[in-house]
Amino acid sequence: MPEVWLRGPLSEVPPLLQPVAHALLQAREEIQEVLAGFPASLLWQRPAGVASVGFHLQHLTGVLDRIFTYARAEALTPVQLAALAAEGHDDTNAPITPDALVAAFAQQVDSALAQLRATDETTLPEYRGVGRAGLPSTVVGLLTHAAEHTMRHVGQLSVTARVLRAAHPQER
């Protein structure tokens, strides 16, 4: 099957936001493929000091949530700030599984797609402040950054997962 962007337009997604939606759907597919059957024992390993697969999965979900919040001109909630602080850490009381993190990312992509469908293209150039400092961006700037940032982390996650599987063949 061709990559998502070669499968045609997505219904109800405004034309100018098609590339964002395509990237997010591609990311979801690639993560599901790369992490199918990924061992929980490798989730927090950091080969050569790089970020763990668990971090990437938590970060991908969290950053989409945060950037799309800013695109709506909303401030982050205490729950979102707590999730940011927890990125990269396993919950020792209730260990996190790869499948649960993959499912959380897939659900966040669904939320992002719903927001893209509801976005009026005339709002794309509107100013949006980012973070506590209110750094300047626009709706389209945030949504585009969400797509490119997501794909950058998918690439890193993919390499890390493959390196870990190769180094630990007994844990497949």
UniProtKB/TrEMBL annotation:
User: What are the residue boundaries of the DinB-like domain, all occurrences included?
Assistant: 24-157
* Gene3D superfamilies the UniProt entry points to: dinb family like domain
Matching entries from SUPFAM superfamilies are given as: DinB/YfiT-like putative metalloenzymes (SSF109854)
Q: Which domain of life is it from?
A: Bacteria
Signal sequence interval, chain numbering: none
Q: Which residues cross the membrane?
A: none
* InterPro entries hit by this protein: DinB-like, DinB/YfiT-like
What this protein is called in its record is: DinB family protein
